[in-house]
Amino acid sequence: MSEVAVRDTMLSYISGSIESESQTVAIRAINERGRDVLHNTSFPTRKHEEWRFTDLSLISKNTFTSVEEADVKDFGDISSYYLPEALESRLVFVNGQFNAELSSLEGIPGNVTVGNLSEYGDHNAVKEYLGTITNYDDDVFAPFNDATFMDGTFIYVPEETVVEAPIHVLNIFTDAEKAFYATPRLLFVGEMFSKSTIIEEHIGLSNNLYLNVPVTEFKLFTGAHVHHARIQRDSKQAAHISRPIAILDKNAEYHSYTICLGAKLFRNDPRVIQNAEEVDFTVDGLVLIDGEQIADTHSIMDHRFAHGNSHQLHKVVVNDKAHSIFNGKIFVAKDAQKIDSFQENRNLLISDDGKVNTKPQLEIFADDVRCSHGATIGQLQDEEVFYLQSRGLTEQKSRELLVYAFALESVESMEVESVEKMLLDEVIKYTNRDDK
Amino acid sequence: MLEIKNLHAVVEGEDIEILKGVNLKVNAGEIHAIMGPNGSGKSTLAKVVSGHPEYEATEGQILFNGEDIIELDADERAHMGLFLAFQYPVEVPGITNKTLLREAYNTIARANEREELDPIEFEDYIESKLEVIDMKDEFLERSINTGFSGGEKKKNEIFQMAVLNPVLSFLDETDSGLDIDALKIVSDGVNKISNSENAIVLITHYQRLLNYIKPDHVHVMMDGKIIKSGGIELAEELEANGYDQMQKELVLNGEAQ
Fold it and tell me: Is B257 domain-assigned?
């Protein structure tokens, strides 16, 4: 029996049934669990502390159907989105559904498993870890993914194995007659001392409304290293609510970089859990928004054991009437001594009507730690603009160059050359838009 | 080349007048030095001439090659050949010296309908200018003034001047904060750039710069006005007697209020 009226749950914005049809036992079990939570959890409002500043009306004023009922339109060639470094290590999902034809996995070493979840339902790692890493309390979006995902990405890297080529997980979203929802799922398991690079991309091909709710779970065993780039270029009308989480064993290193360019509403709740001593992780972000875009990051860096380094640089540029929200929590448990954690949120406001809410939050129960945090909200300095202008650059060009410089640092962390280049082009496109 | 007539200026949005009727004439091939105590308005003069948006000219004219440039933006003035070497050069992390200078050089070239340089041509051109300030290639790849020492920043200003090849340059306290070696390199650079076609206005607090760069004209600025002009002997007189003494004498002679 449900305790919450359906009209107060997320289900009231979903048309049609979300009964599980998955043939995969492991997926089906999570579907059922998610459905239970959904029925019993209210959709968040502004009264909810975690959603105080975030306008969710793009979801609550619309209804989303399954992809099957959305009258999805055909799409053209997407090869321009392929990464030259990952031509044989690419998984493509179209509106959340695996597309074997567009995927290419010839370059994956034989002992490494990369594929779609429904095919690997019997894999021990899937049975053991799928759905066990997410821990979003009082949340409707991770449960919505739980309830509705039918497939997803599965990556398993065995002990001492290095995957040289970046693994490109390309989520494509197409135009459709109706607003639809998609729930991409990703499970990554890296065994001891393995090493890999994952490029997770979300691309909207058109300018339509859809709801993209991805959940990614990363399990890193002792000494595993992962570089995880997440590039969000969804349709500028879309809503994207992300739940990426990683859990780290001893000496594991997890470095994540989230780039937000698209979506009208973006909410990202990255969490990294230090589950043993001596880990190292990064939760960087770059947000470039304009128009009426909302980009909200609520991150948790959760140090539960001693000797950990963590680093978060979250850079934001806000133009027009866009709105950025940042809430970065650093948790350090009572016995988690010798933690070195750094968090910085830098915001650059380049319009009069843009809005920034920022709240760094430290909750530290250990007494021998070094945790620093800071948040700045600034505009371009007149003196900087004048300096460049006095050298002959127009005021517009001077401002563009300064914004470009601000964003550059985050882009340079990408490690994959073609991704850096693509992002630099995106930064230029963002800063140059008034020249068109 | 430059003729400033009765120039008055205030900080934008404020009433306090900082320039109170400056008159100055600079011809091609000349080096001028403007000296004065802190707060006399000499840096403000450089900024107003180069078009700093923080200041507003309320009266008078700035004629550059006969055209009044008061209404022009800083970049338009730069296109005409004006240059300001900053007292406090601005750090711009993420943009290399080379990137800025190529953009600047080509923007100025475009505005003057001269041919732009492609990256390879520009590379050759800019490297040929490095010797002006005795700098190595790496200097070009560094972010603008980021992590530079005080001396490097000032050298960079002179390097930019050498690359952009302006007609008229204001050097705003380029000597301040320089040790003797850096002062020699910077002065040497300025002397190399100076020729019969261009003009340079040095703004300085100290006479020591003028040991290395010989001005044709020296002006003393106090309280928003040029109160006395002369040759190099004026700088020597200041060095010997100080600004207060000069002020007193002028009052006695009825040349100043």
Answer: no
